[in-house]
Specification:
42% helix; 12 helices; alpha/beta; Rossmann fold; 8 strands; single chain
């Protein structure tokens, strides 16, 4: 374990220090490990990041400087997947078809504003890696509700008097229904989650076609918690099964990490001010929904595993 961590620490970082992310930004940790794992898995291959309107269009830096050691292309909210498809095609025509073209989109641009182009690129099986950086609201524009905002959460458009109704969009099942080659959820929490994260990036890097990676991105100002707690909060999200770690590889669902002693979801929600208004009754309802979703994932895993044996 120590040797593995030492290698990770010493690897080349393609996200430079001095970037413009907030203190404690969970997605910055995700970006550092995503790019590191991608480069380690496919050394020498060019990487082009396509980023729709989001915090990351600011974090990237104002031209002519950049926080990245790779090429970056900024797009409007709705068109990132379509523009990435064009970039991949253009690179192929120039003899650079092996370059990784990666969309790094937020939950707003992925689940909501840009979903049409995401779905279309998946249906065409474009040779892209699409990363959903899920911080569960429109953070860059003031913490407004998105399709990725969880039930009961405070945002500036779902205030405490009228918190988020209904559950967040189940984007993983929606994207898996497109029949894409690979889908996985990622969480850069403690070492087990981080090893799972990087193994999935490595798997995606070795495949062709549309690959969808869903990364949980803890956000101190939007989730209302102290900046030093991002890694612990992500760990609790996984250990409470609020954010299950899974993959769908060639249509087969698999839970990649099972907490031995699952935490009650209140131990995740209680770390954040955005849930501080929830009552015991509402917390029990959230726990019920978490348990039901886990049961559904186990049924999907069992069903697709048996289908694989039959085939």
């Amino acid at each position: 374990m120590a040797v593995w961590l030492d290698e990770v620490i010493q690897e080349e970082s393609l996200l430079y220090p001095g970037h413009a992310a907030c203190a404690g930004c969970g997605p910055a940790v995700n970006m550092r490990h995503f790019l590191g794992a991608l480069r380690a898995a496919t050394p020498g291959r060019e990487v082009v990041l396509v980023i729709p309107a989001s915090c990351w269009t600011i974090i990237a830096g104002a031209w002519p400087v950049s926080a990245f050691g790779v090429s970056v292309y900024l797009t409007p909210f709705a068109s990132a997947a379509a523009e990435a498809s064009g970039i991949k095609s253009a690179l192929g025509q120039r003899g650079l078809g092996d370059a990784h073209v990666v969309v790094w989109g937020g939950d707003g641009s992925t689940n909501d504003i840009g979903f049409a182009t995401v779905s279309a690129a998946a249906e065409r099986n474009e040779d892209l890696i699409y990363v959903l950086n899920d911080n569960e609201a429109y953070m860059n524009t003031g913490v407004q509700k998105s399709g990725g905002t969880p039930e009961g959460a405070w945002t500036t458009t779902t205030p405490v008097a009228a918190p988020r109704k209904g559950m967040k969009k189940d984007i993983d099942r929606i994207m898996a229904a497109h029949g894409i080659p690979y889908l996985a959820t990622l969480a850069a929490g403690s070492v087990p989650e981080l090893k799972d994260f990087r193994a999935k990036v490595t798997r995606a890097a070795g495949l062709h076609g549309f690959r969808f990676l869903h990364a949980l991105g803890a956000c101190p100002p939007g989730w209302r918690y102290p900046t030093g707690q991002s890694v612990e909060i992500v760990r609790r999200a996984v250990e409470s099964r609020y954010f299950p770690l899974l993959e769908v590889d060639a249509g087969t669902w698999r839970i990649t990490y099972r907490p031995k002693h699952p935490l009650p979801v209140s131990e995740f929600l209680g770390t954040q001010g955005r849930f501080s208004h929830l009552s015991g009754e509402r917390l029990a309802l959230v726990q019920q929904h978490i348990d039901e979703r886990w049961d559904l994932l186990e049924r999907l895993e069992a069903a697709t595993a048996s289908e694989g044996v039959t085939k």
